[in-house]
Design brief:
Number of helices: 16
Number of domains: 3
Number of strands: 17
Helix content: 25-40%
CATH topology of the largest domain: Rossmann fold
Oligomer: single chain
Length: about 450
């Protein structure tokens, strides 16, 4: 059978990894796919750099639309990134009858509903394993391996930059700003790290996993997103003393009223495997009713780990290229006409309706009655306390200090209730600084 021909849009870090792994493992991949898979055309604005990567035998152009217009190209790999030109090119490739492989989580999280509908109408596939957690095959696990399960929740460390920063803050006792500069120096963080440190990248990824897990459309605009910029070394230290580690988690959960979709720092018990994922590594925990708890761990970024996922998608398409579109795995795991939102069920809950437990840190005056007043307000609001840790004033502010830290862990509480009681506590004259609130996830 003649090799399937692939056009590559963008040959940066991931694109060069795809080319190199495909060349190196060509024979193994052919044996698995049942036919050869060849990159025959590359588009990149830097033509000379692209030619240096792929050599003389492959056509290199500076116009991506030349690849889409080529009738011999069967699959287009989009590795440009972003929402703008990438969206236009993906939709044009679909309209031209090309299958698409992409690592672009931002594009799919925002425009996925439109893109998947266009692909279904045209009878082509859009594959995106590389869009979530790099080399970890979590999309395939959710779409296929766990298809017998009613997924209950997913919690993932799905941004390597923030996990590296939090790991360094914990191990070295440093504050966020110091570690961010070091992460940028080492190449773990971009010059503009906003998408990573503010949680946006993780929210794109958990939006895709949520859609696949629960059969809902992609709804990035409804996700709650909070980054790590306000975390302090003190909170990481206190969490450790209480038996927890702080991780930026992407969480999606099926509850009675709908679906939770949120990204924020979380206290996770130190004994959980995911709490011990360090550095730039990724990990995703999935809870299913039949299988129980499963954990997926590996490199979430990088040239060849991400290329591993891109090429796995190429192999899938090569196998199913001639199959009846009705018999392929649906883009979001569920048949398009059964997506829950279309049936008026499983709305994404506002954050005020989410129920979880909390870590609170209050900087208070070191005087009698403060603890009683704070715990009294929590009791009046119906918030149950799990643990209280009060530091010695000397430990917090040095000898002769008149301030101390009060740390409270709560049991499960509705977020709206917690918002109200925090406002009441903040108004107390003995509370001397903004209250720190971090959510706590037991991940039982």
């Amino acid at each position: 059978m003649k090799p399937i021909q692939v056009g590559l849009l963008g040959i940066g870090t991931v694109g060069s990894g795809v080319f190199n792994v495909l060349e190196r493992n060509q024979e193994e991949i052919r044996r698995r796919a049942g036919r050869g898979i060849e990159i025959t055309m590359v588009a990149d604005l830097d033509v000379e750099r692209a030619k240096a990567v792929v050599g003389d035998g492959i056509q290199v152009v500076n116009d991506a639309r030349a690849i889409i217009a080529n009738p011999d190209i069967d699959i287009v790999i989009e590795l440009i990134g972003g929402y703008g030109i990438a969206r236009a090119l993906v939709l044009e490739a679909i309209a031209a009858g090309k299958h698409v492989v992409t690592a672009n989580k931002a594009l799919l999280a925002v425009h996925g509903t439109e893109i998947f509908a266009a692909a279904s109408a045209k009878g082509v596939m859009v594959a995106f394993e590389a869009a979530v957690a790099g080399g970890i095959p979590i999309i395939k696990a959710l779409r296929e391996g766990l298809t017998a399960n009613r997924i209950q929740w997913i919690a993932g460390i799905i941004n390597g930059t923030t996990n590296f920063i939090l790991s360094e803050m914990r191990s070295k006792g440093l504050d966020f700003d110091v570690v961010l500069k070091e992460a940028q120096r080492l190449g773990y963080a971009e010059a503009d790290p906003t998408f990573d440190i503010e949680g946006v990248d993780a929210a794109h990824k958990v939006t895709l996993m949520s859609a696949i897990a629960f059969g809902v459309p992609v709804q990035f605009d409804k996700a709650y997103v909070e980054g790590i910029t306000k975390l302090s070394a003190a909170d990481i230290k206190y969490a450790e003393q209480l038996g927890y580690r702080i991780k930026l988690l992407g969480i999606t959960k099926r509850v009675d009223k709908g679906v939770e979709l949120r990204v924020h720092p979380s206290l996770v018990p130190s004994k959980r495997l995911i709490a011990n994922v360090e550095g730039a590594m990724n990990a995703v925990v999935v809870q299913g009713d039949a299988v129980g708890t499963t954990l997926y761990y590996g490199k979430g970024a990088g040239s060849e780990p991400t290329a591993s996922a891109v090429i796995a998608d190429l192999v899938d398409i090569a196998r199913l290229h001639t199959a009846d579109p009705e018999h392929r795995v649906p883009h979001l795991a569920f048949q398009p006409n059964t997506l829950a939102d279309a049936m008026g069920s499983l709305p994404v809950l506002p954050m005020s309706e989410v129920v979880t437990s909390y870590y609170l840190r209050l900087r208070v005056a070191d005087q009698a009655g403060v603890l009683a007043k704070v715990t009294g307000l929590l009791a009046e609001a119906g918030v149950s306390i799990d643990a209280v840790l009060q530091r010695e004033a000397d430990e917090v502010g040095g000898e002769g200090s008149t301030q101390t830290d009060l740390i409270i862990l709560t049991h499960d509480t509705r977020e709206g209730t917690m918002d109200a009681v925090i406002a009441q506590m903040q108004a107390l004259p003995t509370v001397l600084a903004p209250i720190t609130r971090i959510r706590k996830e037991e991940l039982n």
